[in-house]
Amino acid sequence: MRTKVPFGAVALLVLLMLAGAEVQAAAPWKFIVYGDTRTDDTAHRGVLIAITTTSQDYAFIINVGDVVENGTISTQWDTWQQACDDILGGTGQASIPPKYMAVPGNHDAVTAPAGLVNWNTYLSGQNTQFGNNGTFFTFDHQNARFIVLNPYESLTGTQYTMLQQAIQNNPQDWLFTIWHPPIFDFGPKVYESALHTTWGVPLYQGGCDVIFAGHAHYYVRTLKLNLNGDMNPPLDALAGTSQIVTGNGGAPLYPVDENHDSNGYMVAYSFDEAQPAYYGYTEISVNGTQATLRHIRVDGTVMDTVTYTANAKPATPTAANTPTTSSTPTNTPTMSSTPASSPTTSSTPASSPTT
To answer: Is the pTM above the cut of 0.70?
Structure first.
């Protein structure tokens, strides 16, 4: 004899199950972005210690590049690996996605055979899981899509196709993009016009929320920008893309010239607001369509914070900026390059800027 279950009880059970699923899907989570960890192992270790003491429950770390001083020298990778092993307990390359990921910087030398071998040895999970020698890839985590790009290969071709496919019909609330040299600089680097027009414009049109970069050894957060291809683009508080330069992870610190290229109007926070300049990292805590960014100094002090609301993600992006030729960054950095000009701010760097 079968017992009849009242319809109301069944309906209540279904509602409770759905509510539980929503709660689980909406659980807050966080990730860490930092970089330019080369040169000073002590400074880098300080940043890693701050991460483990202040942001313990992170999902993964992404390094914005220049992991080491010279990517062709395996002993430098050993030093980096030892720091990660000692403080983080390893880099979790077998995790999905890897617990520690990185984008190629100019110092990592992935265009050199020995540099690429080291890249795929020490960051093996990127190539194993994503292909492309682990130098550019996309992945989804929770309600966010991540696009990792390599500006030291052609900006068009395979990378551009991957970029467009990742933007199109993005089902996630968030779109975060990471590569090494920033589009907009605040001394002593240069404006990257090719990166702006080839990658920045379609990302903005596709609802990209934040572009993370390094290369310049400081922390600067811009307001939300309309990436329209101009050196000085307009602000777009509603649907714009923020650029976060978070390159104060271990390399010699740079002073900031907020008005370099007349960019002062776009600066929301610069680490020259604190004296002296400092090493640190960026934490992003995602809770549904809200995300709170905090930039944290090595002593655990929160130096900058802002809360974003996810941009709308169009079903199909505008294809007006499809490139037809193979372009490269306007000023592709090299390991021996020298700052174009001396910054003019009064902040005192830990040491003289080098690239």
So the answer is: yes
* Residue 276, preceding peptide bond in cis (omega within 30° of 0): yes
Lowest mean per-residue pLDDT among 12-21, 125-134, 166-175? 12-21
Tell how far CA 201 is from the center of its chain: 17
153 in Cβ contact with 327 (< 8 Å): no
Residue carrying the six token digits 């996630």 = 172
Among 266, 277, 279, 304, which Cα is nearest to 186's?
Answer: 266
Q: What is the pLDDT of residues 333-355, one digit of tens each?
A: 344 333 333 333 333 333 333 34
- Could you tell me which of 305, 302, 310, 301 has the C-alpha nearest to residue 293? 305
Q: How many residues does the chain have?
A: 355
Output phi, psi for 2, to 5 deg: -90, 135
- Using alpha carbons, select from 175, 172, 174 the residue that is nearest to residue 163: 175
Angstrom distance (rounded) from CA 180 to CA 325 = 22
- The answer on pLDDT for 134 being more than 50 is yes
61-63 sheet: strands from edge to edge = 100-102, 61-63, 29-34, 280-287, 290-297, 302-309
Sheet with 219-222: list strands edge to edge.
137-141, 144-148, 174-178, 210-213, 242-246, 219-222, 267-270
Query: Which two tokens mark 274?
Result: 């604190």
Q: Give yes or no for residue 44 having a pLDDT over 90.
A: yes
